[in-house]
Amino acid sequence: MNAREVADMLENVGLFEQFCGTWVRNLQSDDVARLLGADASSVTLHTMHELNAERWRVPGDQPILLIGPIGDAHTLVVEPQSYLGAEPNRLRSLSSGGGQAMNIHWTVNLDSGVTLARDGVIVTALSLTAPHLDREGIDPAHLDHDLQVAGLTTGQNFDERVAVAFTVAGRLSGTTLDDEWFGIPQRRYLAARRRR
């Protein structure tokens, strides 16, 4: 997908200004929800549009997790009002025991990142606003080849870098996130409210 297609998709589902998505390999929805602190009894089925229509009923400091399968061996978590999947300790938990978790996120203030965890360790973490600077992890350059193949170059705007990150997530999961995923009812969970 190119930058315009990704931006249009996210705008269509109300996730353009802020986004938190985590692709998790070899864990089912309930297990992912539990590791993110969600209440299993809160599960209901919703499309993203249905969730947006009802979101006003949920306090703004209560994480909402929309979780469903993507590809043959991955589960995707989309958080419309939280960033649990961006937390390093949660990524370590989601990827422990030989698993893998990749998070892409940004806030309205463009605090952003792409993080890849494998087998309970942060492999690489980089910013979408400055992807060539201030990297972290045990192998900060681990995604460089994937990012280059996906089209990352210097001088790109933020939307172009987001499209590159989504392309890498698609390659790692075997399936590109598209409008169809958001239109299919997925499992909606509520996680513990955050302290202010």
Would you summarize the structure shown here?
The model has no long low-confidence stretch (mean pLDDT 94). Helices cover 30% and strands 28% of the residues. The protein has helices at residues 3-12, 29-35, 48-54, 88-95, 144-149, 158-173, 179-183; strands at 19-25, 38-46, 64-70, 74-78, 100-106, 112-118, 121-126, 186-191.
Q: Report low-confidence residues grouped into runs of 5 or more.
A: none
Element-level helix/strand string: HEHEHEEHEEEHHHE
How much helicity do the residues have? 25-40%
Distance between the termini: 37 Å
Q: What is the arithmetic mean of pLDDT?
A: 94
Shape from CA axes?
Answer: globular
Number of helices: 7
- CA gyration radius, whole angstroms: 16 Å
Secondary-structure class: alpha+beta
For the biggest β-sheet, the strand order reads 2-8-3-4-1-5-6-7
Count of strand segments: 8
The proportion of strand residues reads: 25-35%
Main sheet, how many strands, which sense, barrel? 8 strands, antiparallel
Structure explained in plain terms:
- With 196 residues, the chain is an alpha+beta fold.
- The protein contains seven helices and eight strands; from the N terminus they run αβαβαββαβββαααβ.
- It has helices at residues 3-12, 29-35, 48-54, 88-95, 144-149, 158-173, 179-183; strands at residues 19-25, 38-46, 64-70, 74-78, 100-106, 112-118, 121-126, 186-191.
- The chain has an eight-stranded antiparallel β-sheet, with helices on both faces.
- A hairpin with a 2-residue loop joins strand 6 and strand 7.
- Helix 1 packs across helix 6.
- The longest helix is centred in the last third of the chain and has 16 residues, at 158-173.
- It is globular and about 45 Å long.
- The chain starts with a helix and ends in a 5-residue tail after the last strand.
